[in-house]
Amino acid sequence: MNNRATEKQYDHVSSIMDLVSFRKFGNAFRKNIDSFFKAEYNTAAVGGWVSASFPWSEVASYIVGDQSYSMNTKQYKNFCKHLGIKPQQ
Questions:
Q1: In sequence order, what are the beta bridge partners of 9?
Q2: Angle between helices 56-65 and 22-32 (to 10 degrees)
Q3: For site-directed labelling of 46, which of 11, 40, 61, 65 has its Cα 20 to 30 A away?
Q4: CA-based nearest residue to 60, from 32, 31, 37, 28
Q5: Is the Cβ–Cβ distance between 14 and 64 less than 8 Å?
Q6: What are the angstrom distances between the C-alpha of 4 and each of 8, 21, 32, 38, 48?
Q7: Which of 81, 86, 83, 76 has the alpha carbon at shortest distance from 7?
Q8: Of 26, 19, 13, 1, whose CA–CA distance to 70 is shortest?
Q9: Does the pLDDT of residue 11 top 90, yes or no?
Q10: Residues 6+ apart with CB under 8 A from 34
Q11: Nearest 5 degrees, angle CA 34-CA 40-CA 41?
Q12: CA 61 to CA 11: how far, in whole Å?
């Protein structure tokens, strides 16, 4: 089923960000969860000043940490599989 991911799964995605390189995380996130997970789309949305003040990796950590994205269980499982990490229930 493609139900909305659980809070635990969102938290797991956030913790994965600390386990793998930002490049690897970003590629898996773009491929499996949100194809617009790129600096050019998100720094302007947060406010153009962000791109001058923070590196994209820091802005991305806020997006992931604040759960400012939508994810279903299938996307979550594919994301984990892409990174070779066991998904949470």
A1: none
A2: 50
A3: 11
A4: 37
A5: yes
A6: 11, 26, 14, 22, 30
A7: 76
A8: 13
A9: yes
A10: 69, 70, 71
A11: 45
A12: 12
Asked whether the beta carbons of 32 and 16 are under 8 A apart, the reply is no
Q: 3-state class of 52 per DSSP?
A: helix
The tokens describing 53, both together, are 């003040």
Inter-residue contact 52 to 72 (CB < 8 Å): no
CB atoms within 10 A of CB 70: 10
Residues found in the chain: 89
Cα torsion 84, 38, 70, 7: sign: positive
Report the alpha-carbon distance of residue 89 to residue 30 in Å, rounded: 22
Paired tokens of 85: 């990490």
Q: Give the pair of three-digit tokens for residue 31.
A: 């491929």
